[in-house]
Amino acid sequence: MSTAKVRVNDREYELPLVVGSEKETGVDVRKLRAASGVITYDPGYGNTGSCSSGITFIDGEKGILRYRGYPIEQLAVSARFLEVAYLLIEGRLPTQDDFAGFTGRLNGHTMIHEDMKKFFEGYPPTAHPMAILSMMVSALSTYYRDTRAPADINLNIVRLIAKAITIAAFSYKKSIGQPFVYPLNHFTYTENFLHMMFAVPAEEYQVPAVVDEALNMLLILHADHEQNCSTATVRMVGSSEASLFASISAGINALSGPLHGGANQKVIEMLQRILDDGGDHQKYVAKAKDKEDAFRLMGFGHRVYKNYDPRARLLKQAADDVLDSLGVNDPLLDIARQLEEVALHDDYFVERKLYPNVDFYSGIIYRAMGIPTNMFTVMFALGRLPGWIAHWKEMVSDPHGRIHRPRQIYTGETERGLVPMAER
Length: 424
Ligand code: SDX
Known about the structure:
Elements: E1 3-8, E2 11-19, E3 25-27, H1 32-36, E4 56-59, E5 64-67, E6 70-71, H2 72-78, H3 81-90, H4 96-107, H5 114-122, H6 129-143, H7 150-176, H8 189-198, H9 209-221, H10 229-238, H11 244-255, H12 263-276, H13 281-289, H14 310-326, H15 331-343, H16 347-351, H17 358-368, H18 376-396
Antiparallel strand pairs: 1-2, 2-3, 4-5, 5-6
Helix pairs in contact: 2-9, 3-18, 4-7, 6-7, 6-11, 7-8, 7-18, 9-14, 9-17, 9-18, 10-11, 10-18, 11-18, 12-15, 12-17, 14-17
The site of s-citryldethia Coenzyme A (SDX) has 21 residues, from α17.
């Protein structure tokens, strides 16, 4: 077995190396503290493997992304989103019978309990749909038994995927004061969502095929991304034996942050700000480079990708195709392209290997589809749901799984005596 040698003061310790199927190598430090008294130190876990996983492989240097071994470029253009969801969760692509059974089970659970509809009456119209989504997912555990029994887990996975689009669409209808549109199960998953989002009782709504195809690709591109912040959160929360619904609700909250899934909303707000400010993209590139300025180029940079995010490459092309098909001419797309062009040749971005990430173009497409900005991160969550579920399921199936409990380096006060308040 290959090993690493670590010298601490005057002693040397030999630690095993773990090597993955793509030759990724890690130093197994599980015994380091017991042997040497020291821990590893890696704030933000940028160089720490929290688990081994067989779900998604990313090569950040080469811009490679594969779900269960299948390249994202193939899945994004040839698969249906629920096929990819099945692949991530079950570990293999579904046969036609598998797929019919899976979609049939989902169709039996697309409605939410009528009493859950009343929750929406309590939310203000300005409530952010991500907050509603996390609350409603957490509330599912008050309606359904959410134990670790395999039958419960499998049923709740179906309930969660099926109801997520209904909850998301209802939160949109709530925000615009329109009546809820119930799911119709003759639709596909993506058609059902779009119909619930945009149909109004007063008229027939036909789901445009180009919008449905774009949504299918967007959901696939967001479906998983190994140990990102929200997936690591789902694993962290689930490691305490918290329920599926509680763990996924925590993941939704982690995703909402502007440095993570919330970035797609911030990208559009940034592009709109540049447009409103006269469209001078160079001014904002300069702001992004200015260390005195907190402004960041949202949708740029990535902890793992030090090459072009393969999803951004696919979304850049899709933005063109969808806007052309819909006859939409969005000035924000022009600004996005100008920003990318400048940043990809500017030393500041090149030296730091800052490329467009998945959030840079996705919002342009959502806008063209008629989806409002405050729903963008909900769209990310709908895509990421099967990835979160797959990781939660992989973690709970690990016979050697332990509660996640990182260590720290304490930098506070050393011991001191308590002085009674009267004497302070
Ligand atoms: C997602 O992890 C995943 O896989 C996430 C995700 C997924 O599918 O789950 O891919 C989805 O979250 C994509 C990222 C979306 N976020 C954004 O677009 C927000 C803008 N980007 C950043 O804030 C940043 O790039 C992060 C948060 C994405 C990554 O941050 P890191 O890895 O902690 O990098 P860093 O902040 O340490 O930056 C390194 C350097 C710094 O400069 P120096 O201190 O070296 O001089 O790069 C600079 C940063 O200032 N930098 C940027 C920048 N991103 C990094 N400068 C300007 N604009 C940016 N966007």
